[in-house]
Design goal:
Length: 265
C-alpha cells in the first residue's frame, strides 16, 4: 500500500512541477529524501521515465489543436511556416541531446539526493524567474538564434533543481519573445526529447532488470497525467499574466530549506 501511495505522491509532484517553473527533478529528489527512498537512482529509472511519459502525453493533449495545425501541409508550399517551426524545435533539441548523450554517466551521478546542489539550483531558478517577470517587451517570435539559446537553457536544466520550463520560458521572455509563444514553444520542445530518451532506454535494455509493481507504475502515471494537464493549462495563464514572481519566491524558499537541511543532516 505504501508503494502505491508513494507512486501517487511522486506522480502528483511530477505532474505539477514539470510545467510549473519549480523544477520537477529537484522536487523528486527532495521527495525521495523525505520519503526515505534508499534505492539507487538506477533502480527507480522506470518510475521516473513513466512519470515523464505521462507529462509528455498531457502536453500533447493540451496542445493537440496546435500540434494538428502545425502539422498541416508540411510537404506542400503553403506549409513553409509550419516546417520552419518544427525545424526550430529540432534546433532547440541539439544542446540537450549533445549534453545528455555525451555526459550521461556524469549526469546520473548528480541525482544522488544532494540537497546542497538541489537547493543552489532552485535559487538560480528563482533568479531567472524574477528577471523574466520584470521583462516588459515580449513581442518577438522564435528564430534560429533564439531556438539555440532556449535549447542551451533546456540543456542546463538537466541539473536537478533547475526548472526546465522555468529556464526555457524565462530565456524566451528575456529574449523578448511573446509570453504565450514562449510557453507553447517551451512545452512542445520537450516532447521529442522525452520520447527519444524512452526509446534509447528501451533499445539499451535499461529496463530489463527492474521489478517495480505494475500497479504502482499505473498509479504514478495516472497521477502525473491528470495533474500535468491541470498544471500545463494553469502555467499558460500565469505566463500570459506575468505571475512568475510568485514561483521565484517559492523556489527561493524551497532552495533555502534544502540547503539548511543539507547542513543540518
Amino acid at each position: 500500500m505504501f508503494e502505491l501511495i508513494e507512486a501517487i505522491i511522486l506522480g502528483v509532484i511530477q505532474g505539477l512541477t514539470e510545467f510549473l517553473p519549480v523544477s520537477s527533478s529537484g522536487h523528486l529528489e527532495i521527495a525521495k529524501v523525505l520519503l526515505g527512498d534508499d534505492s539507487l537512482n538506477e533502480e527507480s529509472m522506470l518510475m521516473t521515465v513513466s512519470l515523464h511519459a505521462a507529462t509528455a502525453l498531457s502536453t500533447i493533449i493540451v496542445f493537440r489543436h496546435d500540434i494538428k495545425d502545425l502539422s498541416k501541409h508540411l510537404i506542400r508550399p503553403e506549409g513553409k511556416t509550419n516546417r520552419s517551426f518544427w525545424m526550430l524545435i529540432v534546433i532547440s533539441m541539439i544542446p540537450a541531446v549533445i549534453i545528455g548523450l555525451g555526459f550521461e554517466s556524469q549526469i546520473e551521478q548528480l541525482f544522488s539526493r544532494n540537497m546542497l546542489l538541489v537547493g543552489s539550483m532552485l535559487l538560480l531558478t528563482a533568479i531567472l524567474l524574477y528577471f523574466a517577470d520584470m521583462a516588459k517587451n515580449t513581442v518577438k517570435k522564435v528564430g534560429v538564434k533564439e531556438a539555440i539559446i532556449i535549447g542551451l537553457a533546456q540543456a542546463i536544466a538537466i541539473l536537478p533543481g533547475i526548472s526546465r520550463s522555468g529556464a526555457t520560458i524565462s530565456s524566451s521572455v528575456l529574449l523578448g519573445i511573446d509570453r504565450e509563444a514562449s510557453a507553447r514553444f517551451s512545452f512542445l520542445m520537450v516532447i521529442p526529447l522525452i520520447f527519444g530518451k524512452m526509446a534509447k532506454d528501451l533499445l539499451d535494455g535499461s529496463f530489463s532488470n527492474y521489478d517495480e509493481s505494475i500497479l504502482a507504475l499505473i498509479c504514478g502515471f495516472i497521477a502525473a497525467f491528470v495533474t500535468g494537464i491541470l498544471a500545463c493549462k494553469l502555467m499558460i495563464r500565469l505566463v500570459k499574466s506575468s505571475q512568475l514572481k510568485y514561483f521565484s519566491w517559492y523556489c527561493s524558499l524551497i532552495g533555502i530549506i534544502a540547503i539548511i537541511y543539507h547542513f543540518a543532516s
